[in-house]
Amino acid sequence: MNIVILDDEAIICEGLSTMLAAHGGRQWNLFAIYHDAEEALETCDWDKVDLLIADINMPGLTGLELLSTLRERGHETLVIIISGYMQFEYAQKALRHDAVDYIVKPISAEKFFMAIEKAEKKLTDRKAEKNSRIFIQNNLDRLTREYFGELLFDFDILSTDQKASLADSFGLQGRKFAIMLLYSLARRDIDSNSIENVIISEKTKVFVYRIGSGIYTILAVSEDASSIDTTFMLALAEREIGPLLWHKISRVDGLERITATYTKLLECMRDSAELSSIKPLRPIIVKVELPSAKGDYAPAVIGALNIIKLDFAKPLSLSRLSEQLFVHPTYLSNLFKKQTGMALIDYINHYRIEKAKELLADPLNKIYWVTEQAGFVNQRYFSQVFKRITGLTPVEYRTNCFIRPFEKRSED
Predict the structure, then answer these.
(1) Where does 2-130 sit in CATH, by number?
(2) What is the phi-psi region of residue 74: left when phi exceeds 0, alpha when psi lies from -120 to 50, beta otherwise?
(3) 3-class secondary structure, 48
(4) Check: CATH 1.10.10.60 for 299-391?
(5) How far apart are CA 210 and CA 218, in angstroms?
(6) Is 0.85 topped by the overall pTM?
(7) Domain limits of the chain?
């Protein structure tokens, strides 16, 4: 079980980590220690964290606010809240956000270990439920959409065990597939993360995805290849989306060929003569003018900007930068925001997204690879930050890179 400790008091963190180390026989791994909640939120790989032990009251972002934000972002990290005093209102809020326990300082070893054991049991029960056949059957449609989303768009949502169980439960081996890529001016308002599951019959299901401005993918899955012929796919597309300006359909015999087939379809769209005169309406991407080291800034700020420029793909945090620059973290944080107008963590994220956009300009670059090269710890968080800054998901942005040649040719 991976554990993160968060408290602005170093002595508390040291004490808790010492108690954890004393129980070396248990599978409790101290994943990281943070003294700042905002830094923990933006730099920790929460998908790999099983348990967070956090102080409820800290300068800036509080433990409760961090817990609330983690839930909003879809993280199921278990949380134990610690506090210097008992307040019923705080305890209620913590439990409302599914905190495992609420411990009042000073923390005895007995209470500490009882809380962790409670979290450990809850984690074990949760993993057993998620890997169970019942869970998969009850959530089959959603999991199947996510499964095909991973195959088509390089998503990284499901565990290896879930993917294996899902493929087996849904009987995907031996199924026949057809992928249709199309361009339509109808621009039906469909959620980009795989919206609709159109059930045609017990033997045929269809998944509709919007992947860019006017660009859609339709994936049909059937036991019978004859039920997903060209006529069927065209009729379905016009019914679900609208009139088509361009389309191409490819049949796929096996799961392992879906990704490669989809990439080939994108290449066909990019090189399409029919679309050469079309100037698609692309979503507006908000561009942010980022401060540079050439500005009139204090030496500590210039130093931080230079380090970020060189090491953006490496783990970066306020504490690491302040250590390298020999200044206090609070001083660097306040000075950076005062002189640049941006919080340090926000600047790091914006800089990384600009680099990610450069890599996504080549639509054949895998999103998980771009995530790593841009310095993000996991793909889900990368997608959230990318959408917040650009207004598009990485999939939408990368797909729209394919239609840039159309715009260029139409302007010549």
Answers:
(1) 3.40.50.2300
(2) left
(3) helix
(4) yes
(5) 9
(6) no
(7) 2-130, 134-270, 299-391
Q: How many CB atoms lie within 10 A of CB 39?
A: 22
The alpha-helical segments, DSSP class H, found in 27-87 are: 37-43, 63-72
Give per-residue pLDDT as tens, 115-159: 999 999 999 888 877 766 666 666 666 677 777 777 777 666 666
Please, what is the angle between helix 318-325 and helix 299-311, to 10°? 120
8 Å CB contact between 176 and 226: no
| Alpha-carbon 176 to chain mean position | 30
Domain 134-270 top-level CATH class: alpha beta
Nearest to 317 by CA among 49, 47, 58, 38: 38
Nearest-angstrom CA–CA distance, 184 and 177: 22
